[in-house]
Amino acid sequence: MRGRSDGGKKKPVIVLVCIAAVVLVFVYLFFGSSNHGASAIEYGRKLGLTGDDDVTKKDEASSTSFYVDDDANGFTPRSFPVCDDRHSELIPCLDRNLIYQMRLKLDLSLMEHYERHCPPPERRFNCLIPPPPGYKVPIKWPKSRDEVWKVNIPHTHLAHEKSDQNWMVVKGDKINFPGGGTHFHYGADKYIASMANMLNFPNNILNNGGRLRTFLDVGCGVASFGGYLLASDIMTMSLAPNDVHQNQIQFALERGIPAYLGVLGTKRLPYPSRSFELAHCSRCRIDWLQRDGILLLELDRVLRPGGYFAYSSPEAYAQDEEDLRIWREMSALVERMCWTIAAKRNQTVIWQKPMTNDCYQEREPGTQPPLCNSDSDPDAVYGVNMEACISQYSEHDHKTKGSGLAPWPARLTSPPPRLADFGYSADMFEKDTETWRRRVDAYWDLLTPVIQSDTVRNIMDMKANMGSFAAALNDKDVWVMNVVPEDGPNTLKLIYDRGLMGAVHSWCEAFSTYPRTYDLLHAWDIISDVKKRGCSAEDLLLEMDRILRPSGFILIRDKQSVVDLVKKYLKALHWEAVETKAASDSDHDSDVILIVQKKLWLTSESLRDLE
User: What is the uppermost EC class here (predicted)?
Assistant: First the structure.
């Protein structure tokens, strides 16, 4: 009877609590979502085509959620919701919050938490990423190498943390980049000239007459090393994780310097073997001795025959017991890897990789690290684990004592030796180069009325094939991230052999970059390809919107049905059609070119900040 009596007293209380909870949820959903919607899609100043400087406010009712209109061809989106402001720098596959929410069991000592972990479909953000309050169109190249708008990347902690190293300095409404780094406080230009002098290169120019063209900078900071190398016709893939130095890659891309979010952890870097002439680490805080030297062996995999590893770190010069121990063990490791010291001065040592397989074949049996198995493909990279072994050269590279590449700029148009790996002929390569030269000329004819010479700097070719689209842009002051889809021929090694750069990627997932980092996207058949794989075209369009800068452009070259699909989404994505034209020079009779521009829009919070 006591239990019954207590239950009778509690029941009305529980019922009242439940009713109150339901009412509160209803009030929150009704008023909360309305307020969010009102702040979601209120336009800022429109740039580019319209020249309309008036601030336009969209109908609040249309922006509270995802709406559709039903037509003869199915559902057409009227608008997408806008993500919360705290997601203005969202990188879906490098989202630390996702790791916590999904309770992924990762080994932090192996840097797995900095590797890619993509959300399943039910956890994706199907909304538009808002710009930060007060966002401005980025400063144009080449001025952007040295300064960016503070409001675009409102993070100044690096300026304070690295104030003695001249990484960056806050000056009024801008952030300046004096060109310093952790190991070159007085400027990357002097440091680069010193490295060239160490190697006895003519005129202290590190490209050595065009023989050195593609570099990898590991732990790059804000990429001043790569930024200053551009003056020497050297393309550098500046690589860093989204770690305690948050936004360093975002700063690099805002400056107009090639960069990519990545880490030496457990997975191979998304670059094929023999891609770089030089790898660089300036106090990159990497334990090169861990796991039998597996990280150093990953650098070995991506270095060309005769390639260099420039290492600036206390271990190279300090005399305390711990640094001396690391230096001895690292020296022994690289000796077993057949590397030799090319130069050593002050705080920097430069090792060189062998030109042939001779040293590998002369090692004593059982020497560690071992040679990779013959069935191990050194070019398989997407989601592939690193291996603690040495990749030998191909028979061609061994016989020619090197990669056989022409110096830059001749290598851009010279048929790469690795064409034979795909059964491609030199004639096919030359025809592809000429075809894309004509196509790029046609693109620029269409873009000329709406762009200036400095409108575009960071470009992405979403399906790069042999890199001929990028090659055709060589006379323009731009750089191209050449993306090779992971489910097709791995032609990225041909792209690197041309002196260009890029990464392997699956467009069923988000790319490893910050929002608002590219001025122009080239989408050749990529939407069709994604649909064939059973992935969402809508997700891809939202991803393209995420990585495209406000007022940036997309060149879509695809079937008429795909172009029609994209046109349905223009209003929802706040894109504007610039030009639609049949592709006269096409692989398919039905191909159409659609050029769209992303409008600049701001949330109501941003507008209030401007006021």
Answer: transferase
DSSP 344-392: EETTEEEEE--SSSHHHHHSPTT-SSPBPPTT--TT--TTPBP-SSBPP
Q: What are phi and psi of 310, to 5 degrees?
A: -95, 120
Angle at 498 between CA 497 and CA 500, to 5 degrees: 100
- Going by C-alpha positions, the residue among 608, 609, 574 that lies closest to residue 50 is 574
Nearest alpha carbon to residue 119 among 102, 138, 132: 102
pLDDT band at 75 (very low <50, low <70, confident <90, very high): low
Strand 303-312 to 276-282 pairing? parallel
Strand order in the sheet with 458-461: 501-505, 479-485, 458-461, 518-524, 548-559, 591-598, 575-582
List, edge to edge, every strand of the sheet that includes 303-312.
259-261, 235-240, 214-218, 276-282, 303-312, 348-352, 340-345
CB 498 within 8 A of CB 416: yes
Calculate ∠ Cα 521-523-529, nearest 5°.
145
Contacts 24+ apart (CB under 8 A), 288-292: 288/330, 288/333, 289/326, 289/329, 289/330, 289/333, 291/388, 292/368, 292/369, 292/388
Residues above pLDDT 70, as percent of the chain: 84
Q: pLDDT value at position 283?
A: 86
Q: What is the pLDDT of residues 203-244, one digit of tens each?
A: 999 999 999 999 999 998 899 999 999 999 999 999 999 887
Using an 8 Å Cβ cutoff, are 227 and 239 in contact?
Answer: no
Instruction: Pull the structure tokens for residue 122.
Output: 């039910």
Q: Which residues pair with 505 in a beta bridge?
A: 485
Distance CA 575, CA 545 (A): 9
6: phi then psi, degrees, rounded to nearest 5: -65, -40
- Please name which of 50, 156, 115 lies closest in space to residue 265, comparing C-alpha atoms: 115
DSSP per-residue letters across 131-169: PPTT--PPPPTTGGGTEEEGGGS---HHHHHTTTTTS-E
Per-residue pLDDT tens over the stretch 310-361: 999 888 777 789 989 999 999 999 999 999 999 999 889 999 999 999 999 9
With the C-alpha atoms ordered 353, 354, 359, 361, is the resulting torsion angle positive or negative? positive
The pair of three-digit structure tokens given for residue 193, joined into one six-digit string = 């000239």
Nearest to 40 by CA among 58, 25, 22: 58
Task: Please count the other Cβ atoms lying within 10 Å of the Cβ belonging to residue 585.
Answer: 11
Where do the DSSP E strands lie in 177-275? 214-218, 235-240, 259-261
CB atoms within 10 A of CB 371: 15
The tokens for 327 are 């230096």
Q: How far apart are CA 138 and CA 549, in angstroms?
A: 9
Strand 169-171 to 458-461 pairing: unpaired
By the 8 A CB rule, do 348 and 338 touch?
Answer: no
Residue 475: DSSP 8-state = T
